[in-house]
Batch of 4 targets.
Target 1
Amino acid sequence: MPNENIYVGSDASLVLSVEQDDSSSEGSLASDLISEFDLSTVVGRLHKVQIRVEQDLRPYHELGNRYASDLRPGMIRVSGTSERAHINGALLSLMLGDGAQSAAPKGSFAQPSFNMVINLNSPAREKITNKLVVFGVKFESWDFTAPEDDFVMESVTVKALRIAVEEEEGGGDEGE
């Protein structure tokens, strides 16, 4: 039976991961940074997480018809944004890799690639978890904001290769 839970933002958690068979320089660099900043547990202090999927739809119009007779799917783009009220270099390092070090790297350097996993779990139905898995994520931009009378925030925009939704039922507490 499909999950029909209604969630709020406080029901969500976001973790970063790398696929176990990803031995590329981008994957191993991301894995090292995720371990260093302990982002495989939870990326904390997030605000306004948004994931967007866009698909080009091309209508086919037959001669003499005003309405399209067919819609053909085209390119799919996965992107998103997020804000974070914590500055520790993790997100900037995940965007720039070795380029985020104080000593400038020589030549070109790899940009980390990782997965974002958003877990949604309602306290009323703890045994059901919905997951939004965003694969092949790379940060496209990073912003830092230090307003006079509000929280210091960093924000990122992301691009990704693909996205999937998973539903898990069962588990619960270890004591059950």
Target 2
Amino acid sequence: DRPGKTNTSRTLKAAAERGRALGLDEIVLATTSGETACKALECCEGFKLTAVTYHCGFKAPFESVLPEDIRRELTGRGVQVVTATHALSGVERGLSKKHAGLYPVLLVADTLKLFGQGTKVAVEVAVMAADAGVPVAAARARRS
């Protein structure tokens, strides 16, 4: 009924359950502080995890929002961590704030938000992971 951290574990468990039912073995998720990715390690056993976080400089110039010690912990536990510019905003958001007009990628983002912020984020982090070269089962299947 309400957004927020109280839903994270339940959502991850539901994603893992559905993934298993579909025969999937990979989960791509959004994380800022690393907290969601750490919870996924508990809730999503048996899945390869890719954690996508904000680009460096999102909050402070040249700094990652994901603390380095958390990044090391996650990668040490087998999580692939992707730090990338938002696929559905990036440069266009900066331009739209300064210049009026229509921007196609922002229209896509706003359309996805009609289905919920989480839907937009799910599509966005999947594109960001793919842009970073993270292999996923569907892409590997197409290449074989």
Target 3
Amino acid sequence: WDPKRDFAFGMLHAERLCHLMAEVEICKVLVKQARDFPERMELAETYLERVTPEVTYLYDEIMTTGDRLLKKLAEQE
């Protein structure tokens, strides 16, 4: 994918990518807080356990969907 040539892929998956990146940043903050305040470790672990399947799904969705739609749109142009 070359974003300088065609940004359709990025636009198609922008919401998924933003959601995934937001979850990653939240996890980073929770882990940092857990290192600084050990009493928050359980919260960080619980959140990581709950968000891991969602983030994995978003990543898989980005990597495996959209080709057919993008090809169809390119043909229409």
Target 4
Amino acid sequence: MLPDQLSAESQELYNGVFAYADTLGIRHFDFDRMAGELGFDYTSDFLNPGHLNIFGAQKLSTWLGEYLTSHYEFADHRGEPAYSQWEENAAYQQH
């Protein structure tokens, strides 16, 4: 679950979803409970109670990128014609 400022009732609902995912062996994360590990500050990392701002999104994206690259291997498709649009988009973003 993405970070959110949940009510106790909503957290109970998500806890049920997490328990069900556990029974199916589905990996999940409760980023609200990981707020300390991620360094979230609810006064400066949120646009509103339900959405991260750029600072919070950067913290979450950094953690998720590190998790994914440490647990999975990804093929590098740079330079392949079928993926040229990705490279063009990246160049545009860097500009």
